[in-house]
Amino acid sequence: MRYPATLVTDAPLAHLRWLAAAGAPVRPPVLLMHGIGGGREAWGDAGSATGAALAEAGFSALALDFPGYGLSAPIDPFDLAGLARSVIALIDALGAGAAVLVGHSMGGMVAQEVAALAPGRVAGLVLASTSPAFGKPGGDWQRGFLQSRFAPLDAGLGMAGLAAQLVPAMVAPGTAPAVIAAAQALMAGVPEATYRSAVSALIAFDRRADLPAIRVPTLVITGEHDATAPPEVSRRMAERIPGAVCTIVPGAGHLLNLEQPQAFNAALLAHLRACVAAR
Q1: Left if phi > 0, otherwise alpha if psi is -120 to 50, otherwise beta: which for 128?
Q2: Exposed/middle/buried for 173, CB within 10 Å: 0-12, 13-18, 19+?
Q3: Cα distance from N-terminal residue to C-terminal residue, the chain
Q4: DSSP reduced 3-state for 221
Q5: What is the pLDDT of residues 237-278, one digit of tens each?
Q6: Which of 14, 48, 118, 147 has its CB 3.0 to 4.6 Å from that of 261, i.e. a possible disulfide?
Q7: Which residues, 6 or more positions from 207, have their beta carbon under 8 angstroms from its beta carbon?
Q8: How would DSSP label each residue in 27-74?
Q9: In whole angstroms, what is the distance from residue 94 CA to residue 105 CA?
Q10: 62-84: per-residue pLDDT in tens?
Q11: What's the pTM value of the predicted model, to 2 decimals?
């Protein structure tokens, strides 16, 4: 049975929406939040197919566009707190009270922001290929990071040229060319101004001190070959969140939901079922 998505634009954030299978019990919706080079389509049938997998399992799911991405209006200033407030506004508009937040990379940082700013809106967390802080102490590393990420853009290569340089280095060895091409297309579709703002916003992120305050079921998941959010970082992160579970996906790099969608979706669903059983 197919579970088609509906594109919703008359909401605080544009999103794809999958409704739970008929007769499914009422559960908190699952918000799927993309990374810095992604968008709502990362979770659709041409990406990880996570939305359809959740609907089939009895969960309503929304794959959103962050502000400035896809069909969502930009915000100014563009910062992680602003992104978190936009997610909170979406949850409130749904009338759901609380939602399970599934955040990949930057999306995982936004999920942590929401948990810190409005813990009552969060029913559960899945922190995928992300970390509780960005970079190293001081500013030299951050400045170097910005220069390296912006260099292809400053040279006039555009987002397509940037994606061609970055994506192959983000995935695990042996990743299928079709997966790499799909990820490059996603990144190439991000407006350059949005990408620059998002990268600049990341360097100030640090929620390490807030990890012990998380009181909802949490899954920390990353790929065994993820150099951006390495397994050891994920394990340390999970150790600081009460009751958190850490899963390392074999054969995956930073784009684990696209590289190993079946393994990612299986881990996500197992976590959600455990959350439901514990309620």
Answers
A1: beta
A2: exposed
A3: 29
A4: strand
A5: 999 999 999 999 999 999 999 999 999 999 999 999 887 776
A6: 48
A7: 109, 112, 113, 116, 132, 133
A8: ---EEEE--TT--GGGGSTTTT-HHHHHHHTT--EEEEPPTTSTTSPP
A9: 24
A10: 999 999 999 999 999 999 999 99
A11: 0.96
The neighbouring-strand residues paired with 77 are none
- What ranges in the chain are assigned the alpha helix state H? 50-56, 80-94, 106-117, 140-154, 158-170, 177-188, 192-202, 231-240, 256-259, 261-278
Identify the three-state secondary structure at position 179: helix
Q: Which two tokens stand for residue 39?
A: 């968008």
Query: What are the beta bridge partners of residue 236?
Result: none
Cα–Cα–Cα angle for 243, 244, 250, nearest 5°?
145
Distance CA 241, CA 121 (A): 18
148 contact partners, CB below 8 Å, separation of at least 6: none
